Every structure is written in structure tokens, then in C-alpha cells.
Amino acid sequence: MVWSGLRDVSPASKNWCVRARIAHMWDYCGARDGQPALHLDLVIVDEKGDVMYAEAGGRDVDKVRSAVKEGDVYSFSKFLVVNMKPSYKPFCVKYMIKLTLWTKMDRVESVVESFSRFVFYLSLHSDLSSRVGSQLFTVLLNFISLLQ
Prior knowledge:
This protein is mainly beta. Helices cover 9% and strands 30% of the residues. Residues 5-105 form the Replication protein A 70 kDa DNA-binding subunit B/D first OB fold domain.
């Protein structure tokens, strides 16, 4: 099987096959605490260190959650590539992955060490004010907790 890098995937094809580690996975419930997840969100990273945001929505959440585990590497196929959401951009990329009931996710047993376990981007403190009102997502919680 021919593997594509995350930087290569686009809506131009529906036959992508990628191998990537799930660096982070979380439920998004909006402001509805205690309610079922609106979608399951993932940050995936490939062997070259390229990252992409992936999402399983509504009825697909349970299927995807039961099929994958944060920290493991999977081969992904039969997924959709769509434009990145304008309201949530954790990375400076054009596209995101939509995982569906038909998405195939197979755990990769023998993993080379080149798959990063963590994904982060550092911002200078002086640059934070320029991001106010922008659509680029910034996580400050870890930064704030390190200062305390």
C-alpha cells in the first residue's frame, strides 16, 4: 500500500491512505456539560512530523472512539478531506479530516520512533496580543499553569 503524507492530502481525492499517531483525542461537548459529545476531535501526526486536525461527528463518535486509542499509530483510509473550519484552526493548514462510519482505522503494531508523540507550537509572549480576535486557536492553559 502506498502511504501519503498528511501534507499531501486534499479534497482532490477520496482514496487517501495515511499512517499517523493520535497525539491527542478529546470529546467536544460545547457548552453542554454532561451531554453526549457533539464530535470527537483528534490531533494526528505522521512520520514526517506533519500534523492535521481530524473529527468524527455525531453518530460516528462511538465507533471511532472504540476503534482508536490516544498515543497509538494507525493506518487511516476511506476518510473525507474537507476545508478547515473557519471557527477553529489549531494549526496553520488548509484542510482537516472527517472520520465517518466507513473510515478504516487499523492499529500499526511495529512503529518506528520517527512518529512524534507530542505536537506543540511555541508562541512568543509578545505575539499573543496579535492573535486576539483571530481564528487561530491558542491553548494558554498549560502556559498559565507553568507560571504558577
